[in-house]
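pasting for the record
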Amino acid sequence: MKRIFLLLAVAIITTGSLSAQVFKRQKHELSVHAGAGLSTLQYELQTGKHSNGIGFQVGGGYAFYFLPSVALRTGLEMSFYNASAKLTNFTDSYDVQASSVVNNYTYTYNIDKYNESQQSLYFNIPLMLQFQTGRTYIFYGAVGGKVGIPLTATARTKKYEIATKGYFPQEGRTYDDLPQFGFGTYEYLKGSTRLDNFKLQFMLAAEAGLKWKIRKGNDIYTGVYLDYGLNNVLDTNDKRFVTSVLSADKPPMSPIIESQYKGSPFTEKINPLAVGLRVRFTFLQ
């Protein structure tokens, strides 16, 4: 065991000595960066189709080199995530309890084509360990984690129609054309709804690529990045997708990722994921 520790110590000292010959000693590095690629909200729908989306990252960072080729990086960045859900010829029904048993009914609705996209903006704080090596071409890699604070989240829908009807068992009749009771065909124009059920995200983060020397004090990093969400960022999803109301108004709708189908959530959890290309420009080294 002592021999192993001795070999490790020699390796660290040797690596530090070689790195010092390759890299000019620097302590601090400020940078700005931008990246784009697959940046999505991953989830599985109980029914329907989920699609990933494209997003981006922009931010600034600070690195402290405690060895010539090893640095601790942190900073602030804005990350945009994008995904969508689609329902085709979707039908659901549930029992509605009225003030009188005679007025109890089964509410049924049908949506032919429903398209909903979800966009969320997070404020991420990374903490990563960066390594670099090479002489003519400088290769770098970084691993660590990120904590994300939700800023805004929105669900957007395209134009669609919904047909509703009510079956009254006491009468043995179904009504599908009584707008004053909420039964009929309704048209919804495209719109947006604010999502308030997103929470903190915790991510594993990695980055790798090439570092290019431009001039004294300025470098450019070009590489690929991966951010993998570890936790479910969906706080609640217990709303009713379509709510029955005895009114001439359109039935109230809730975003699909906040709603339930047949007593269970459309989706159990949401995990952010981002993979793409990034460019970083450094200054004030």
